[in-house]
Design a protein that fits this description.
It is a single chain. The chain is mainly alpha-helical and 852 residues long. Among the domains are: 19-56 and 66-112, no CATH class; 409-480; 719-775 and 799-852, no CATH class. It is built from 25 helices and seven strands. The protein has helices spanning 2-33, 36-55, 68-87, 91-108, 114-130, 134-151, 157-172, 185-202, 212-215, 218-227, 236-246, 254-268, 287-305, 311-317, 323-335, 358-363, 365-380, 395-488, 491-499, 506-590, 594-712, 720-726, 762-774, 807-812, 846-851; strands at residues 270-271, 280-281, 308-310, 341-344, 349-352, 820-821, 841-842. It has a three-stranded antiparallel beta sheet with strand order 3-5-4. Strands 1-2 form a two-stranded antiparallel sheet. A hairpin with a 4-residue loop joins strand 4 (341-344) and strand 5 (349-352).
């Protein structure tokens, strides 16, 4: 059994070495042809292989990683994977390879060789620089520097100086503030876990209870560099730059002092010797970060000297950037509590100093609130001013005050509505925000539940697959055992095994099946060796008997070949002689025809030359004709294009003239319309003036007639309304509704009395003349008044419907008041419009008269 296990273990080692060598070849293939996708897949396969090795530790044929040979093979594979990943610039795969190497070291509790660790830290410097993790980049350089200084005896002084300069510049390139300042607890916990993970990768052991930011920090690394004497190995330019940025105080010209040192850094870069794991040191990659550090130092030192500085002066101090980039640096510095400052673009200054604390704002909160409330009260209720009483205000001022108050009330109503709308909008926004928060929380809950269900399903699926694999392996082991028993013919033992199948474990079945296979293989090898030995004996005896026969046959074959060669040579010589004689005879026969051949040749050449010249002339003539035709076609096209352009210009000119004529016609019509409307307005204005004069004249005549009649009979009763009018009042009461019953004119009387030109129609004029001539004076309209005391005076007539009269008819009668009215008819409650250019009509309407 021990020999069986040793042979199985040796076989596993050979397979393991073959797989890893094949992995190296696959890495080189991916690097040569830039096959990034296949490289990622290969890395994932190797990673899963290592995970499975850790998972199934109870397997007998599992490689033992604690052995130096196995560990060395796996580490070499991972380092080769790391190199290829960095050369392909697959930085995520490179970092995963770093984690795989660290996991191997942590698993076996053993540190690899210094050469491998040097490559490990060299690749870490590249990975951390690409990921902008400048702090970890500096620590990786520091670890690489210490490792090379301690173990690499072939390292030159120049290499040591360049590496020390890289360590110092990488440390200076780290931002001088904590980017997690003011972060939430969750972010700080995540950053703490990340720092612990990075520290373990770099080889630092950090206590979980302590803050990793205190252990891995820029200040701690700088102090360690000074304490370990790294500054003694750096170049003078880097040392002076470190002293200028970290120890000296030059707020006004710090950037100007640092600029020469930064310009010298590219010249200090150089290649390292072959003994170093880093082929080249490029110091110019740290220049942008050092420029940012210089700008931050300028802001820090200026904030200690000044309280206010102009933006132009600050930009002049920082010679590397314009103010837009300086402003971004200011925002980051203030955000992470590096400096305290404010930028006032209105005044173009930068104010330095601490920000107002929240407690200081709370102190003056009530005072500010009281002042603002007082100001609001003074605006709402201004101080009282001595005003005259409302009773003494004239009517126009009173109307203005009422209008002003009305506008205030309307404005207040609008303001209230606006505030209500604003409050509703705010409530709607709050509801929308609450709804979005609720939906977000619900979505997060659903995602968490889906992840949990997915994990649970994956776990169940994994358990099912593992169970199926175990059952399958157990079944295969039973099958192998049964086949082995059949071959041996041990029926009784097989029955006993079937009866105790529940007591046999998977490991026992596998060991038994494997031992049977190994025994069969060994038996087969013995049989093959015996068969090979027998066949060797037979082959040797056969060849010993064949040897003289083969030699005799070879000698006979040589003699036959020699005779055949001589015969062939003689035949070839005879054929050559015969051919020569035949050729000489043919030559003598053809010499007599040479002159004729020359003559015929000259004739053919002359004929073909003439034919060639004729064809050439025809070609020239055809080309000349084609040129002429193309010239004519080109001339025709040009003329057509010219005529087309002329026609387009003519049509465009005609179109423009037509549009100009239309515009002039529209303008002329507009002017004529305006003139016509102006004339009509002038006629209407004159008509209104004549009507107003006639109304005033008729009013005076009527009042004089009334006064004359009252003065003739003073003993008669006079109504109070008439007495008031006689005393000078011009306001008469409206008649009662009974007197207004029959004031509406008939349909015949509603027709207009004037035509469009302003003259009265002939029909209405004749009707009015006949009516005036036939009606006696006593039946004309009289103002309403009370019953007279004198019996001789006739009683007043009842109210008659209004009679339409023209101004020509009114001119003949002066004792009747007919207020003018425009149009055919208008409701008593409306002012009514007048026809354009028409004559103004009048009605005997007491209500119109009372209103006027």
């Amino acid at each position: 059994m021990g020999n069986l296990q040793n042979s199985s273990r040796n076989l596993t080692k050979q397979l393991q070495a073959g797989v890893l060598v094949l992995s190296h070849r696959a890495f080189q293939f991916c690097l040569q042809y830039k096959r990034t996708t296949e490289f990622r897949r290969l890395c994932e396969i190797l990673r899963n292989h290592l995970i499975n090795l850790n998972k199934y530790r109870d397997q007998r044929d599992r490689p033992d990683l604690t052995q130096p040979e196995s560990l060395q093979l796996y580490l070499e594979t991972r380092f080769e994977q790391l190199k290829v990943a960095t050369e392909l610039e697959l930085w995520q795969e490179a970092f995963r390879s770093i984690e795989d190497i660290h996991g191997l070291m942590f698993m076996v509790k053993r540190t690899p060789k210094p050469q491998m660790m040097a490559v490990y830290y060299a690749k870490l410097t590249q990975i951390y620089w690409v990921s902008d993790s400048h702090l970890y980049h500096a620590y990786a350089w520091y670890k690489l520097y210490n490792l090379q200084k301690s173990y690499n005896k072939n390292l030159t002084a120049k290499d040591l100086q360049l590496m020390a300069s890289s360590v110092v510049l990488a440390t200076l390139a780290v931002a001088p503030y904590d980017r997690k300042y003011g972060a939430h607890h969750f972010e700080l916990e995540m950053e703490k876990d990340r720092n612990i993970r990075m520290a373990n990768i770099l080889g630092f052991n950090i206590d979980v209870k302590k803050d990793s930011r205190e252990v891995l920090s820029r200040a701690a690394l700088l102090s360690e560099l000074v304490a370990k004497g790294v500054m003694t190995y750096v170049s003078p330019e880097v040392k002076d730059l470190y002293t200028l940025l970290e120890n000296e105080f030059h707020p006004l010209d710090l950037a100007a002092r640092a600029e020469p040192f930064l310009s010298k850094l590219p010249n200090l870069s150089d290649k390292l010797s072959s003994a170093s794991p880093v082929p080249e040191v490029r110091l110019e990659q740290y220049v942008p970060a050092l420029e940012r550090l210089t700008a931050l130092r300028v802001l820090q030192q200026v904030s200690q000297v000044y309280s206010t500085i102009k933006i132009a002066d600050l930009t002049r101090m920082v010679t590397f950037f314009d103010f837009s980039k300086v402003e971004k640096l200011i925002v980051e510095a203030v955000k992470y509590n590096f400096v305290q400052m404010k930028v006032d673009h209105l005044k173009e200054v930068v104010n330095f100093g601490s920000q107002d604390l929240e407690s200081e704002k709370v102190k003056t909160h009530l005072t500010v609130l009281a002042k603002r409330l007082k100001k609001a009260c003074s605006m709402i209720f201004p101080p009282s001013i001595e005003r005259p009483s409302k009773q003494t205000l004239p009517y126009p001022e009173l109307l203005a005050v009422v209008e002003k108050e009305h506008k205030k009330l309307l404005a207040r109503k609008v303001l209230i509505e606006r505030r209500k709308e604003e409050q509703e909008r705010q409530m709607l926004e709050m509801e929308r925000e609450e709804e979005s928060k609720r939906l977000k929380q619900q979505r997060l809950t659903e995602e968490a539940e889906a992840k949990r269900l997915a994990k649970e399903s994956a776990r169940r699926e994994e358990a099912r697959i593992r169970k199926e694999i175990e059952d399958k392996e157990l079944e295969e082991a039973r099958t192998l055992l049964a086949e082995a028993e059949k071959r041996k013919g041990k029926k009784g033992k097989k029955a006993a095994a079937d009866g105790e199948v529940t007591k046999i474990t998977k490991q026992l079945l596998l060991e038994e099946a494997l031992s049977e296979q190994i025994k069969e293989r060994q038996e087969m090898e013995r049989k093959l060796q015996k068969l090979a030995k027998t066949m060797d004996y037979l082959e040797r005896a056969k060849r010993e008997e064949e040897r003289p026969l083969i030699e005799e046959a070879y000698r006979n074959r040589l003699q036959d070949d020699e005779r055949f060669y001589k015969q062939q040579q003689e035949q070839a010589i005879e054929q050559s002689k015969n051919q020569h004689e035949t050729d000489v005879v043919e030559k003598h026969r053809l010499l007599r025809m040479a002159d004729d051949k020359d003559v015929f040749q000259r004739q053919v050449v002359a004929r073909r030359q003439g034919e060639f010249e004729r064809l050439q002339r025809l070609r020239e003539e055809r080309l000349a004709e084609e040129r002429a035709i193309r010239s004519q076609e080109r001339e025709i096209r040009r003329k057509k294009e010219f005529f087309r352009r002329q026609e387009e210009q003519r049509l465009l000119r005609i179109q423009e003239e037509e549009e100009a004529r239309k515009r002039e016609e529209i303008e002329r019509k507009r002017r004529e319309e305006a003139e016509r409307l102006a004339k009509l307005e002038e006629i209407a204005q004159k008509q209104r003036e004549r009507e107003a004069a006639a109304e005033e004249r008729e009013k005076r005549e009527r009042e004089e007639a009334l006064r004359a009649r009252l003065e003739e009979k003073p003993g008669k009763f006079v109504l109070p309304s008439l007495r008031k009018r006689l005393e000078g009042g011009d306001d008469m009461r409206r008649p009662n509704m009974d007197d207004r019953r029959d004031v509406r004119p008939s349909m015949e009387e509603r027709r207009p009395l004037f035509d469009v030109q302003g003259s009265a129609t002939s029909r209405e004029t004749d009707m009015q003349v006949e009516r005036e001539a036939s009606s006696p004076p006593s039946k004309r309209y009289q103002p309403p008044r009370g019953r007279q005391v004198d019996s001789e005076a006739p009683p007043p007539r009842a109210y008659e419907p209004p009679v339409r009269r023209t101004h020509d008819a009114l001119a003949a009668r002066k004792d009747v008041y007919d207020p003018p009215r425009a149009g055919a008819y208008a409701h008593p409650g409306r002012s009514g419009g007048r026809p354009l250019g028409g004559g103004r009509l009048v009605e005997e309407r007491p209500e119109r008269r009372d209103r006027w």
